[in-house]
Amino acid sequence: MSDAYANRPSQQQAEDAVRTLLRWAGEDPSREGLLDTPRRVVEAYGDWFSGYTDDPRAYLERTFEEVAGYDEMIVLRDIEYESHCEHHMAPIIGRAHVGYLPDGKVVGISKLARVVETYARRFQVQEKMTAEIATCIQDVLQPRGVAVVVEGAHECMTTRGIHKRGVSMVTSKMLGIFREDARTRTEFLRFIETGNGKR
Q1: pTM value?
Q2: Which of 14, 71, 88, 139 lies 20 to 30 Å from 161 when distance is taken between CA atoms?
Q3: Are strands 74-85 and 123-124 parallel, antiparallel or unpaired?
Q4: What's the pLDDT at 199?
């Protein structure tokens, strides 16, 4: 947990901030339909940004070494996530694909999804989130390499500013053998393309 989170404002202060924004938008927070809105918004924020209370590395600490010598690529694709951009606090909705080449130990696949979820449930820049996921897996599991590809639709682009819909951003981070060996990288990319219905 970060120091900023430990020193966060109270529930009441957060709800008062929502009332201020409602007034700024031209609304009356005392109107019947808005009476419970501040509480609901703060509760929603508690869910959307629960990643600040979780340690993604902790999810990877329990590993399995009895895998009958398995040392081929492990890929978890199409991990859906919901995040928020740190520039406009607007949603980012997308999918992440994670792969690694184990070096004697593997982790439960749900734990990889938990790592993605933890980083996504923070204010994010997609490029940073992609690198954070890859670095976390590399540091904790110490595999021969890690590959992460993240796709995201950014509501800060579709609902404001340029108003362009149907646009998605793709970012990637390759570490170890995925960066060094083009064949390994190509195999990973082929795996995640298969998951998207391509042949």
Answers
A1: 0.90
A2: 14
A3: parallel
A4: 38
